[in-house]
Amino acid sequence: MKRTVEEHASRFDDHAADYDESQDSEAYRACAGLVIEHADPGPEDVVLDLGCGTGAIALALADDAKRVVGRDISEGMMERAREKAAEGGIENVEFGEGRFREPGYTGEVDIVVSNFAMHHLSDEEKREAIQVIAGLEPRRFVLGDVMFFGEPDPSEPFYSPEVDDPATVGTLVEAFTEAGFAVTGARRVHDQVGVLVGERVGER
Ligand SMILES: C[S@@+](CC[C@H](N)C(=O)[O-])C[C@H]1O[C@@H](n2cnc3c(N)ncnc32)[C@H](O)[C@@H]1O
Questions:
Q1: Region 87-93: what's the mean pLDDT?
Q2: What's the CA-to-centroid distance between 116 and ligand 1, angstroms?
Q3: What letter does residue 155 receive in the DSSP assignment?
């Protein structure tokens, strides 16, 4: 991690009011759309959204799920998510403090999602986070994020090298597999952005 959790939280607190308007890239929208599509919860499913931010994914899934739990380190981002839930009359969502490696949620989870957030962790921390996610025993984990499909063009980074730490797709697939997820889908949105779908291997 190139910044501490506290530094990332403060950075996103400062950015919370204009975050939604700033996410106007085609790749971000396509990635979020694929995460929502592949999460595909049913009416009895509890969804956990890690690094939920202002709720782009959590709020979009709430209609189809039984309940959505959002976790993030930035109170400012989650406050915006709560406002949007209230504005939309969405009552089956809950947002609270939690980190990838300590989600602060031990209840039942059917599907875990995360969009554009895990790239703040180092590769070793991502591996640990994916193990923690597997320990919650969801049947599916859908990760949309900055990830490298090949050698990234250094003149056109889709991320901020001073604060972000994206992994290669190979590293992520290995981490999914080691944690007990079979990777059933890998969608490339951009040479530096993609979505991985992991299905839990074996009985829950
Ligand atoms: C780029 S935003 C993405 C928000 C949202 N998922 C979306 O798709 O718009 C990244 C979010 O990850 C959160 N974040 C960063 N590091 C985190 C960590 N270690 N644990 C949980 N959330 C984290 C930030 O606070 C921020 O809200």
A1: 98
A2: 7
A3: T
